[in-house]
Amino acid sequence: MAMEKISILLVSDNLFLRRGLRQVLSEQGGFQGEESSTAEEAFSKVKDLPPHGVIIDADLPPPGGLALAARIRKYFPVIFTITLTSRDDDEELYNAIRAGCAAHLRKSIAAEELIATVHKAYRGEYPINEVMSTRPRVASRILDQFQSFALTAGQGLGDLIVPLNPREVEILQYVAQGNTNKRIALRLGLKEQSIKNYVSGILRKLAANDRAHAVFLALKHGWLKVS
Length: 227
What we know:
Number of domains: 2
Number of strands: 5
Distance between the termini: 52 Å
Radius of gyration: 19 Å
Strand content: 5-15%
CATH superfamily of the largest domain: Response regulator
């Protein structure tokens, strides 16, 4: 039986960008591509198709690509979104994370990296979280937001038993600071695969969707402290 092709909707008012992406994804990635030139047309296609994921030009005319990503996330949470940008901007990255994007990439990204990112997003991963290790200002804002949610959502919860062992709490603390698995491994003197195994165990114990969700849950229940 043939494997199902990953279907991607490409959204940009730039015809050359759409066609270029479609060619790369089809010929090199083996994906099935559709196109839209406006946010409204794209949202209609998301409802009608629907695709597995949507790659969105962040530079779409107002209300913009990030607004479209947030709208898709709200009404179709199983569909992943990836935004493409021409800027290296912390504010835009922060808003992409808030919009629920799986990744926020430069338009100049290499074809191989784009294809690899699409595969990660299709598997339910959020490569955008890895960027926070090199963008401390963005990581700080996200953690501040998590902490604010925690203070509100955690009122009246009382003392709860921490389901994580001390090593897992330590690793999750590093994750909360935006460290990658490789960096955590170097700091703790462990193998990167060991850190991956720890993180997988943490996600399983907390029933978390991804690393950011695990941090939120731990902050919510007071198991982590943001320094």
